[in-house]
Design goal:
This protein is an alpha/beta fold. The protein is built from 9 helices and 7 strands. The chain has 2 domains: 243 residues, P-loop containing nucleotide triphosphate hydrolases (Rossmann fold, 3-Layer(aba) Sandwich); 44 residues. Helix 4 runs antiparallel to helix 7 and helix 8 packs antiparallel against helix 9. The two termini are 43 Å apart. This is Cytoplasmic dynein 2 light intermediate chain 1. Its main location: cytoplasm. It is found in: Cytoplasm, Cytoskeleton, Cilium basal body.
């Protein structure tokens, strides 16, 4: 099996992967562009072990094109990680992440798209636009979200329930600070990656952590018994969300700090060469600055000083 993990910046994607797949916590470090993990499960004796290849996309949704470098796996699913503690980012992250996945599938899986997975018996089938791969919507940082006012939690949960149901996805909340949520996430992802049976039960109540499998929800239940709108739109829920939490379209346009200053990515040989080049460049800049000041060109000299500060 293969898995893409994308979503909000600093939402805990790496921690989620390491926690639910039982990987070495020493592997936890800031992700640059695209990171790779490999998880495996040892079944009963006599059966081969099962592997799951995992790619984590960094930088929120800034680096969607980087996924195109991954060779199309035959059995793929995607996790969209949404930061519940920052509800003003939900719309942009969710819709942009879905677009990244759709583009990847259309480009890499164009000749082998799986048939639509929505059962014919599902009541809302006509209004569901399922992707040909399993989608998991994960509401991260539930430990912070649970402190929200009930009405705000209701609105967020209503939006996420609609989003998941309209895309025939699995929706569940997660926090590595809650043992039950960590255990539930492990169960869901192990079911996909290693075919381990699910035992948990659905949870639709907004005052509790949501746990809703594909097709278990309905637009009627999401809208409420008194609603006459049997085919609501995503735009309706965007407006509802925006009334409570003005959506920030610019959130994901911040880029990570320069990795050459990050001790997690030390490369002694390369770092030594870089240091030599930097020192040589400093000498050249100093010489040019002296010439400019001799010629009373203070404006360009000050510009050079500013350039040195920002390097």
């Amino acid at each position: 099996k293969s898995l893409f993990v994308i979503g909000s910046r600093s939402s805990g994607k790496s921690s989620f992967i390491i926690d639910v797949f039982g990987l070495n916590k020493e592997e936890l470090k800031p992700t640059l562009a695209l990171d790779f993990f490999c998880a495996f499960h040892l079944p009963e004796e006599g059966y081969p072990r099962k592997l799951c290849n995992i790619w984590e996309l960094a930088g929120g949704t800034n680096y969607g094109s980087v996924l195109m470098t991954v060779k199309a796996p035959s059995d793929l699913a995607a996790v969209i990680m949404l930061d519940l503690s920052r509800p003003n980012t939900l719309w942009h992250t969710a819709t942009t992440s879905l677009e990244i996945i759709r583009k990847y599938i259309e480009t890499k899986h164009k000749d082998r798209l799986a048939p639509v997975r929505v059962p014919e018996s599902l009541k809302d089938k006509l209004f569901i636009k399922a992707l040909p791969i399993p989608i998991f919507f994960v509401g991260g940082k539930y430990d912070l979200f649970q402190e929200f006012e009930p009405e705000k939690k209701r609105v967020i949960c209503q939006f996420l329930r609609y989003l998941a149901h309209a895309n025939y996805g699995f929706l569940f909340f997660y926090s590595n600070k809650h043992n039950n949520l960590s255990k539930g996430a492990k169960e869901i992802m192990s079911n996909y990656a290693f075919d381990i049976p699910l035992t948990s039960q659905e949870q639709f109540e907004y005052n509790q952590p949501l746990w809703i499998s594909p097709g278990a929800d309905s637009f009627e239940a999401i809208e409420g018994k008194d609603s006459m709108d049997i085919s609501p739109t995503l735009e309706k829920y965007r407006d509802l969300l925006n009334n409570y939490f003005p959506q920030d379209e610019q959130t994901n346009k911040k880029y990570p700090n320069n990795p050459r200053f990050d001790t997690n990515y030390k490369e002694p040989t390369i770092d030594c060469l870089r240091k030599e080049r930097d020192e040589a460049l400093e000498e050249v800049i100093d010489e040019i600055e002296k010439v400019l000041r001799i010629n009373h060109n203070e404006k360009d000299a000050n510009h050079l000083i500013e350039l040195k500060r920002t390097r």
